[in-house]
Write a structure and sequence with these properties.
2 copies of one chain form a homodimer.
Chain A: E1 16-29, E2 33-40, E3 43-50, H1 63-69, E4 76-85, E5 94-105, H2 119-124, H3 126-129, H4 133-155, E6 159-160, E7 166-167, E8 179-182, E9 185-189, H5 194-199, E10 207-215, E11 228-237, H6 242-272, E12 285-287, H7 288-297, H8 311-325, E13 329-333, E14 356-361, E15 364-371, H9 376-385, H10 394-401, E16 407-413, H11 414-421
Parallel strand pairs in A: 3-5, 6-10, 12-13
Antiparallel strand pairs in A: 1-2, 1-4, 2-3, 4-5, 7-9, 8-9, 10-11, 11-16, 13-14, 14-15, 15-16
Helix pairs in contact in A: 4-6, 7-8
Chain lengths: 442, 442
């Protein structure tokens, strides 16, 4: 039997016997000749079958023709035939004249979703939705992006962690925590690997990373939130300030975007009409207070009681950065202590602000990073100030009592990066199987 | 200020001013000279300080000496001084004559664990336990192993998935499922990505992988089980049989072991007294019935009512394979249909056995793989036969109704591989933070 050839490799294959496997995208069942467009994970090709006629012009016995006429869209099959390069064929300049079809699994004739189906309906039938090349491309890009990040980390001697998602107590706040029945007790799903990745610092790991799930029982419906998401985390020892973390972070983004542009740039342009821009370093950095001033000058007053930015403010400052520096990224730094968690280190000169940042990409926050407070007395004080009970945090505080290096890191939402890179309308498009307050299936 | 040098790089550095950062492992506070062994993530180095005396022989003012005398084990600090190569120094042939110490965080003098502490006590203080080079090495090896697997997958055009861990219903059986309070309803934690990774096949992804957490509410206490573990999964389309899956699987193991041996072989030999063996391919394959016959010939009757192997049987067959073929791995194949899940494809000639396998490494099962049944009528029939209600499985069965390629894959426990590679006594040693029926902390 002929070995399967991936469809993308047909162009560089020599004419002659060939075997391809994939699913039926379209069938054109004409009187004299039949065409099938077969797609696999790498591309699509036209299969052609000239019908057979008797000498008197009546249709002859033709098993292949009958098979093709009975094909439903989505049927998975292996086709064997003669590969022929022909530049008149629009689809890749090749076609396969069929010798035979072997059906792996017939699709039922029903097509539950169409091009104009709403996103909810499409998510119900996600496995069909993902057959669309534009949609599956997202996950090929994600694969390339993640791999580039991991290669950067490996080259720089980071250790990969798999921190537990089951916890005995809350990591940050009791709000938005999922509760799990755990034998005779309760457990909680980790909202982030925060405490566990910090633990690697007093453990002497030096530099660590993790890409894994995180869970938030957030009942809100926005385009940017999910109850389960993939968190990209890194944490490093012996930093001078959050600046060290930002430097690593921007180098990672450059590595990721470079790999994506190289491997998928042409396809992204073809399917999304977008050119991927590899960001230049250093990314612009703007202290939050300054960012609010700039936004106010543009005529937007952030409607918040606290010192935080809001989504519209983030869009405005991103627009300013784009106009001024031609950059899609901006680090907003020096967030007020009042709106940051107790474990963010505060500025040595001005305790009202923290050594922390948010990374904004195309107008939306994708990440929060910071230097962590590693001085136990200060840490306990800051926890109390936030109304937390140090006793409940005891297992975490122990990490600091037995020696710890200065350290910091970031957490970043993977699907957010993809969403903003491809200018997708919401997170659901950038998630293999989305989970939200009312979505637990498929 | 002098840039930090990693301790492992001191040997190749030139003599002169140098700065290192790490934690205090030991202090030898002698009358004429003081020694500190400082360790970082890359190694350990001796810091030396000759005490200063007045002309009359009495101790002079000596701030560094006082600082050293006050050092507690575990204190994190930055040391600056003069690097000197001296082959008489046992620890790496270099030492640093101190100019100054900058304390990052003092450790309290207490040392909650010692060399002879029990494993439970050590797990309570895991961040201290991981400062021991032998223990942290495990996670460096794991990092290298995983990266080699991912590089193999990337080179072979696999797509990386992040499947949801929150599910609306059971994936395989209702037993051993953790239940989550999910807004107005219940969710369950995925025991494996089985259904979701299979979904990628009718979605046309071709080949996929995932390394992520899986959860089993298994109340048993064994050296091989955890309630949360890291599962290594792959699934591929257009296979001929489980043989295609086994070929990929053994190539992956070779890639992983080769990388580990190259990068950590010497250190594993030094700290564990073990030589890493890169397995040869093909791995031995033995049908389960034959394996039971061999084991019986060795005088061991598997004490089970069903057709399965037991742990002692796995050890026996592994011993046989080691003696006969000199191989640490063996694929046990053709497991009986009665003891395999409904979605395993059955042998075309003999429906009593499945196209499935377990991979045994050093006598313990580390993985289960199989060709999946992709013919919807057969699949529904097999589900019913196992007492499952096809309606409850409807979302899964849909994957097969709209066309699907023949496919198969495996799931493998990451910590098990590490445990058996390093001959560790239990899974807890090979897990960053172990989770068991009575362990949810730290």
């Amino acid at each position: 039997m002929t070995q399967r050839t991936l469809i993308k490799n047909l162009v560089s294959s020599t004419d002659g016997p060939v075997s391809v496997s994939g699913w039926v995208e379209t069938v054109r069942d004409q009187k004299k000749v039949q065409f099938v467009v077969l797609r696999d994970e790498s591309g699509a090709v036209q299969l052609v079958h000239p019908r057979i006629f008797n000498e008197d012009g009546t249709p002859a016995d033709d098993a292949i023709a009958e098979e093709i006429s009975a094909l439903s869209q989505g049927t998975f099959l292996t086709a064997t035939g003669d590969l022929k390069h022909d530049e008149r064929v629009k689809l890749g300049g090749v076609e396969i004249k069929l010798d035979g079809l072997e059906i792996a699994a017939r699709a039922i004739a029903e097509t539950p979703i169409a091009d104009d189906s709403g996103v909810d309906k499409r998510m119900d039938w996600r496995f069909l939705d993902l057959r669309v090349p534009k949609n599956s491309l997202i996950f090929k890009i994600q694969t390339t992006f993640e791999h580039a990040l991991r290669c950067y980390w490996i080259d720089n001697d980071f250790v990969e962690l798999h921190t537990p998602k089951l916890m005995a107590s809350a990591s940050e706040s009791r709000a938005e925590l999922f509760e799990v029945e755990y034998f005779e007790t309760k457990a909680y799903l980790a909202q982030s690997p925060q405490f566990f990745k910090q633990m690697a610092q007093p453990a002497g790991f030096g530099k660590i990373f993790e890409i894994g799930p995180a869970f938030r029982a957030d009942p809100s419906f926005t385009s940017r939130h999910a109850t389960e998401f993939t968190s990209v985390d890194a944490e490093i020892s012996w930093i001078d300030s959050h600046e060290t973390v930002m430097t690593m972070h921007e180098e990672l983004m450059v590595a990721g975007f470079t790999a994506v542009k190289e491997k998928h740039g042409a396809e992204i342009e073809a399917l999304y009409g977008l050119e991927v821009t590899v960001p230049t370093t250093p990314f612009p950095r703007i202290a939050l207070a300054e960012a609010k001033r700039i936004v106010a000058e543009r005529g937007y007053e952030v409607p918040r009681q606290d010192d935080d930015m809001d989504p519209e403010g983030e869009r405005q400052i991103a627009a300013y950065v784009k106009e001024t520096y031609g950059h899609e990224f901006v680090f907003l730094t020096d967030y007020a202590s009042s709106i940051r968690p107790f474990y963010h280190m505060r500025n040595a000169e001005d305790g009202a602000v923290t050594n922390s940042y948010d990374l904004i990409f195309n107008g939306v926050e994708i990440s929060t990073g910071a230097q962590r407070e590693h001085r136990i007395e200060v840490l306990v004080e800051q926890a109390k100030e936030k109304g937390l009970d140090p006793e409940e945090l005891d297992f975490y505080l122990d990490f600091f009592r037995y020696g710890v290096p200065p350290h910091g890191g970031f957490g970043m939402g993977l699907s957010r990066v993809l969403m903003l890179m491809l200018k997708l309308p919401n997170l659901r498009e950038a998630t293999y199987l989305f989970r939200g307050p009312t979505r637990l299936t498929p």
